[in-house]
Amino acid sequence: MSYPENTAAAQGLALCHTCGHLDPAEIHHCSRCGGALHLRKADSLQRALALLITAVILYIPANVLPIMNTQQLGKGEPSTILGGVVLLIKLDSYPIAAVIFIASIMVPVSKLFALFYLIWNGYRQEPASAMQCTKIYRLTELVGKWSMVDVFVVAILVALIHLTGLLVILPGPAALAFAGVVVSTMLAANAFDTRLIWDRIKENND
Amino acid sequence: MTEITGQTHTACEECDLLIAVPAIQEGERAECPRCGHTLTQRPRQGLERALSFAIAGCVFFAISLAFPFLTLANGGIENVMTLPEASIAIWREQDPGLAIIVFVCILALPIALLAAIIALVTPLILERPVPWLPQVGKLMFKLNDWAFVEVFVVGTIVSLVKIAKLATVILGWSFWAYVAFAICLTAAISGLDRLQVWGAIEASKA
After folding, report:
1. What does the pLDDT read at residue A62?
2. Same domain (yes/no): A17, A33
3. What is the CA radius of gyration of chain B?
4. Alpha-carbon gap: B52 to the closest alpha carbon of chain A (Å)
5. Which range of residues forms the domain containing residue A13?
6. Residues of chain A contacting residue B6, judged by C-beta atoms under 8 Å apart
7. Both B103 and B149 in a single domain?
8. Fewer CB within 10 Å of terminal CB in chain B, N or C?
9. What is the pLDDT of residues B116-142, one digit of tens each?
């Protein structure tokens, strides 16, 4: 594979993943910190895609199963992520409904689509604008963590509500699945190498 | 053209453009001319800032463990929740996977990150060479991706609003200490640039 002329890879130089030192790729280990050297992240697209598919699969139980179970006077009332948003709207807590809707539904869904789009462009011979893809990538990295909000809300509610047996909140299976979605999309974004997209662009089409 | 080595050149992490190492002053930032990615920056007194905020962060972290995090008042009953209980309560409800994720994201990993910052920056400031510096450096930059402190703060606020209709919730000392801890952690990290820190680690060996 040949790399565009102005890149470090074209000179056989690789940036260390760990410390950012530039070294000839043929020495395999960074001369400064000993970290592994690769011209491009190894199997970037396959690994990113595998992690992304994991996230998509986990996303199903995360939404279908209850994220928490409110038990009141012996009666159990399971609620899903979407159900939680609907309930908050009914209670007129619009700002919080918006936070949960953005963090638990909008961000993860758009992240899944964004990552698919990026990986697809990584495979294409002539990808969309590299600058645009890089911007999408930066955004995915930036918002990645914030979907964890809902998991933490469950953790706090479970710990806080022990109202002398009148009301008990139990964590539902969706909470763990959802945490899995967040972690695997973060790992997928980590595995994705934006340089692959810059490698495919023609010199005249920056 | 002079010879291209790791001493004279670097490459952009996101687009792999080969660039001569930018000479920057304190307070300046160098970005990739092609994709705009921040190559390196030299925060004013970055190491000193990182160390002082990391030490302050440790103090706030200790406070956040020792006092009530949230207090729930309903009629005459008061239910006090401490910070570790966010994880312990889930463990008791037979969901160890979720309990471990919460524990790692909000407690174990953030404090390990602060400890790593202190262990890394102290020898650099004192200019005292220690053999394990590269290992701590690697650990520090890896942990940095996985601290969810600010997300947990937002999660707490969302939970408050969710319970507000049921009972009165009082924010404890521990909550405010955790907010201060989150601020200190962010401020400490903002003093550390990957290339600058690794340059300092390399210089300390000589």
Report:
1. 93
2. yes
3. 21
4. 23
5. 1-39
6. 13, 21-23, 31-32
7. yes
8. N
9. 999 999 999 998 888 889 889 989 988
